[in-house]
Amino acid sequence: MPSVDSGNSADARRTAPPGQQHGHASSGQLTLYRLRDLVAAGRIDTVLLAVPDLQGRLKGKRYNAKHFLDRIVTGGADMCAYVLATDVDMRPVSGFKLASWETGYQDFAVTPVMSTLRFVPWMPGTAVVLGDAVDHHGEPIEVAPRQMLRRQLSRLAAHGLHVKSGLETEFLLYQDTGDQALKPLSIENLDYALDHTPVATRFFRRLQAGLAGAGLPVEAVKTEGAGGQVEVTFPYGEPLTACDGHLIFKHAARALGARAGLTPTFMAAPETGVASGLHLHISLWRNNANMLSDPDGTLSKSAEHAIAGLLDALPQLGPLYAPNINSYKRYVRGSFAPTTFTWGHDNRTCAIRVVGHGDGLHLEVRVPGADANPYLALAAAVAAMNHGIAQQLTPGPAEIGNAYGAGGTPVPSTLKRAQVAFRHSAIVRDALDADVVEHYAHLAQLEIDHHQRIVTDAERHRWLTRA
């Protein structure tokens, strides 16, 4: 199928250095002082305090804004720890060390991160702030997605390096017909099209306006090759900020989609032959210098080490960037999703695409699907680069031409294969605490166990009258 996971919107990053693209904080972001003024004026009456869960969703509570200012800002809040120890259905399950029936499902504390405070324009009178999960001694909960990324960034900082990143995600829009049969918003290939239906145009305008009002201006919106498929790219910025913004974006897409009679899905493979990715655009910096490029424009040693680390370690980190059974149905030849761990210059058939030039040179990691939790996917990529830098690994030659026929380590074909590699990898256990490894391996096992018991429509269609 043409261009279903192509990731084409990196054009601006080719011409502008990542460090110059993020710009100044937008008016959609709020300071604590500004929030106090808006609450006093009656313009904001509700504050959402949210933590990212394991699946990359916002979970939390709606607080009366005055109560939030009086009590939560300084005293924090409590939340049941199962928010970070459950499957996508939010079932209380055994087997997690953090929280389970055996622990009595205790609380953890949530500390508001006031730098994330912003308007929620699609919800009247509402602001949102993300929180960090900590234990009652104030220590971070290590399995929390924000902490997972923060820990890998700290490890990278030990090499005197920091990351700048931009996220590019694809998703499908379905028309909500009021029954179970969802129809894609369009049925034809509208890749790069600029003639959209009025429904699509209104949704795009509302999404862009809402995100801008929340301090999250998009870089570009484009339709993709599959029916109803859309790609949104965001400017370069700091990695935690980029991931925080991605969760707000998904919240906006769902809320605004529902009002327009549309259902967005971020499944990696929502239909047979359709693939949606979450591409990570990453550059390595020391002070104000992009460390991926030498003065003559060639790849630096740091770039080679980082690429080699990605190729060596990502095959063993699958549950962090491909967390579901469905995730692995995206890795199909000719889908623009990689099937082997290869790298190349401006080559969309590779897992790692080197793109841009000068200060704009960066790596596009094309392995994560749209269903990935962005914090975990980026944490996996940074952990892999750390591995390559620490071991001073070097990659083989760049792939020229179609990498689908090339060698290289295959992308795991199933979640079970990925989980086994993740749980037993020395590289993974060097990058992550043993408890963290077991936590995410158990999460993967829950998904495997769930699907093992389900009889699908595809099975009935193939075997009902033939068995």
Compact description:
The chain has helices at residues 11-15, 32-40, 65-75, 145-157, 198-213, 239-259, 301-313, 318-321, 374-391, 415-424, 426-431, 434-452, 457-463; strands at residues 46-52, 58-64, 77-80, 107-112, 118-119, 126-134, 162-175, 183-184, 220-223, 229-233, 262-265, 278-286, 289-290, 343-345, 352-355, 362-365. The chain has 467 residues and is an alpha+beta fold.
Assigned CATH architecture of the domain at 32-143: Roll
Fraction of residues in H or I helices = 25-40%
Q: What gap, in angstroms, lies between the N and C termini?
A: 31 Å
Estimated share of beta-strand residues: 15-25%
The class by helix and strand makeup works out as alpha+beta
Count helical runs. Answer: 13
Q: Please tell me the overall pLDDT.
A: 91
Question: Within the CATH hierarchy, at the fold level, what is the topology of the domain at 32-143?
Answer: Ubiquitin-like (UB roll)
- CATH class of the domain at 32-143, anyone? Alpha Beta
Q: What is Rg? A: 22 Å
**What's the CATH H-level homologous superfamily of the domain at 32-143?**
Glutamine synthetase, N-terminal domain
Order of helices and strands: HHEEHEEEEHEEHEEHEEEHHEEEHHHHH
Tally of DSSP β-strands: 16
Uncertain segments are 8-25
Largest sheet features: 10 strands, mixed
User: What coarse outline follows from CA principal-axis ratios?
Assistant: globular
